[in-house]
Amino acid sequence: MPLIPNEYREPSKSDEFFKPVEGTNKIRILGGIESPNLAAVGFEIWERYRGDEKDRPHRFKADNPKNPRPNSAVKAIIQQNHKKHEQLHGHVMDEQEQQRNNTSKLFWAFVVWNYDLGMIQVWLITQVTIRNYLATKMKGPWGDPYDRPKEKNESKDHIGYDIYVIKSENGPNKQTSYILDWESPAPLEKHIKQALAESEVDINKLFEGEYPISDSREGLLGDDIPFDQEAVEARLQKIKDRKDPNLQRTPAEQVDYLTFRFEGIESQEQLLEMGGRKGLQRELNDLVTQVRGEVDPVKLDDLQALLNDVIREYS
What we know:
Number of strands: 7
CATH class of the largest domain: Alpha Beta
Largest sheet: 7 strands, antiparallel
CATH topology of the largest domain: Replication Fork Single-Stranded DNA Binding Protein
Oligomer: single chain
Strand content: 15-25%
Radius of gyration: 22 Å
Number of helices: 10
Shape: globular
Helix content: 25-40%
Structural class: alpha+beta
């Protein structure tokens, strides 16, 4: 038996993101837009013409995911790039340069399970062809590719399905193309559910310039992988703390804790046990009053939207 597996590879922060390799890549999408921490629609725009400094990307959440349009923050960076280009080159940006270096890019973002690597990642889909494949498939009889509780007009929970992302590079210029294929619907495997439950992933961190999986922000996917027992125990304690109602929390942690509680509601009985519609709304209102001014208001709006979805689902 070898000291380490033959397939061993050094992890890095780039592992947080699913980037299809040439050939077949098998994944499972783990949630949809109704789960604010697992899916999002947004725009990416690069801040360019920074002299000796590198270009840098900015991502903004779409105000309306059903009809996404670049918002004022995106447009402000586009205008800023125009001004910097003119200052740097002494003339206005031509149409070719604008199309190449100064347009925003729509993306879908999903938390996925990568079967090939055996890990949770975030998939940023900027390719129109892939989005069209997914949109067409979701309109078919199989519906959404992820598991979700039954809706009021359904008799049973919805079962998702695995996706094959097939990447190829063809022609003299190595032009990249993608094809999607599917396996028949099957329940999500237990070890994937457990991995998702134990990972502190928040896709909205993308819009704050941070990594979406908290372990990487703490360096646990960098050069200090916790092989030692002390670090492992610290990680397990952090998971336990997330469920502890008596723990003293910062305002941001209080929002995360209430999000965790709302996401754990999976039946009408659970909703009633936790205080019902009025009790949970009162709890959220009290939290908003307590943390207002100390927490990003977008997070509070997302939490309210999550509660609204839970109430609609189980009332």
